[in-house]
Write a structure and sequence with these properties.
binds flavin-adenine dinucleotide; alpha/beta; 7-stranded mixed β-sheet; 5-stranded parallel β-sheet; globular
């Protein structure tokens, strides 16, 4: 029987790549094997709904590291391979080809799969999700024949895809089931700003819109709404969130549910099994200790650094302030902190100027900022969030007062 792999990483995405990089940077000399379901070496996912979809960035520039980097550092990949079960007692993980890989430590970095619609017609050709390069390539191949597209879901991915397609001159209807876009992640002023921007770019944004079914024979032809109305469509893009890819770990007895539960060192309840990235359910100081899953590059990279640190024998805890970005048209949104549970909201600057900041407070302390084309607020706002001092709301609101002054 071959020796166990010292570190087996499941998932060749942002978090999987980052943990391998951090281990080698930390002079880890053991064997590292990365198992990835997709055929590609790790690549950046955010451009899939931005520059890559727009045709502005070729795939080669999305690679997190070139092939030679991995070879030089003796990080081995088995791509196009899925881990289907884990035997925690035997320290083994079994692939979809049926072979079992023994490990000393396992890092589960499997992200999530796009949530799919379950209504009639959801499987028709022309109905897309945006999670992988293959998803984006399929959409891009169809785009020349698309005149009308319906985007289902007013979260960041749906909004970004709508912005790219609108720039291509497609007729877009964006359907959001709630009464505003970004309702789960942002305050109302930000939602209204993005709704107005999309409408100004010709996107027909419909709120409180429930989908009944997708219509078509072999290929999508339209979307029927719950009110009986029908929208013609040559393409449907579904952006309604992800389901964390943790089934093999939960089946092996790991504690979890909507994700796999980890402690401050990214350890799951299974021996020698870590979990990081989109699939890791963790208590986050910036959510007042609530258990959350954070779907961002920051979280994937920083949890990877923690898991690698623990494997390297360091004393580390995951305690990084969350940050995120989104690009739509010429708008750059930068978010710092988590707006969860805010009890006060301040708009700093004029949304009409297309440069402003939404500041979220809880008990008088700044917990998050959404900065629209406002880089300085983003940079100095970080300190406000991290330090958690009470700040005078009148001064926060006044764009003439640099946040730098308030951050002391
Ligand atoms: P992933 O990058 O998804 O990697 C997981 C990998 O594991 C996948 O390749 C998957 O196929 C593989 N896998 C799953 N199950 C198995 C298994 N059983 N065996 C083997 N392999 C498996 N974040 C931002 O911060 N800013 C943005 O602007 C932004 N934009 C985004 C736009 C899009 C279109 C998408 C999809 C995401 C975006 N994100 C953005 C989120 C960010 O990309 C994710 O948070 C990040 O990719 C999470 O990294 P991860 O390693 O946890 O998961």
């Amino acid at each position: 029987m071959p020796d166990p792999v010292d570190v087996l990483i499941v998932g060749a995405g942002h978090a999987g790549a980052a943990v391998a990089i951090a281990l080698r940077q930390g002079k880890f000399e053991g064997t590292i094997l990365v198992i990835g379901a997709e055929p590609e070496l790790p690549y950046e996912r955010p451009p899939l709904s931005k520059e890559y979809l727009a045709g502005d960035k070729p795939f080669e520039r999305l690679l997190i590291r070139p092939e030679a980097f991995w070879a030089e550092r003796e990080v081995t990949f088995r791509l196009g391979t899925t881990i289907v079960s884990v035997d925690p007692a035997g320290h083994g993980a079994t692939t979809d080809a049926g072979d079992t890989i023994r490990y000393r430590r396992l890092v589960w970095a499997a992200g999530g799969a796009p949530r799919r619609l379950d209504c009639g017609g959801h499987q028709l050709a022309g109905v897309h999700t945006v999670r992988t390069r293959a998803d984006a390539d399929r959409m891009m191949a169809e785009l020349p024949d698309v005149t009308r597209a319906v985007v289902i879901g007013g979260g960041y991915i749906g909004l970004e895809a709508a912005a790219v397609l609108a720039k291509f001159g497609k007729k877009i209807v964006l359907l959001e089931a709630l009464d505003r876009v970004l309702a789960r992640v942002a305050g109302e002023p930000l939602s209204r700003f993005f709704e107005a921007e999309h409408r100004a770019h010709g996107v027909d944004v419909r709120l409180g819109a429930a989908v009944d079914s997708i219509l078509g024979d072999a290929r999508v032809a339209g979307v029927q709404l719950a009110d009986g109305s029908v929208l013609d469509a040559d393409m449907v893009i579904v952006g309604i969130g992800i389901v964390p890819a943790v089934a093999p770990l939960l089946a092996a007895g790991a504690v979890g549910g909507n994700g796999v539960a980890v402690d401050g060192q990214c350890r799951t309840s299974l021996p020698d099994v870590f979990a990081i990235g989109d699939c890791a359910l963790h208590a986050n100081r910036f959510a007042d200790g609530a258990r959350v899953r954070i779907e961002s590059v920051q979280n994937a990279n920083d949890q990877a650094a923690v898991a690698a640190g623990v494997i390297l024998g360091k004393s580390v805890d995951y305690d990084t302030v969350p940050w995120f970005w989104s690009n739509q048209y010429d708008i750059k949104l930068q978010t710092i902190g988590l707006a969860i549970g805010h009890d006060e909201l301040i708009v700093r600057g004029e949304p009409a100027s297309r440069s402003f900041t939404v500041i979220y407070l809880k008990a008088g302390r700044v917990i998050a900022l959404d900065c629209i084309n406002a880089v300085k607020d983003y940079v100095h706002g970080r300190k406000l969030v991290v330090e958690g001092h009470k700040v005078d709301p009148a001064r926060l609101k006044d764009p003439a007062v640099p946040l730098k002054e308030l951050a002391g």
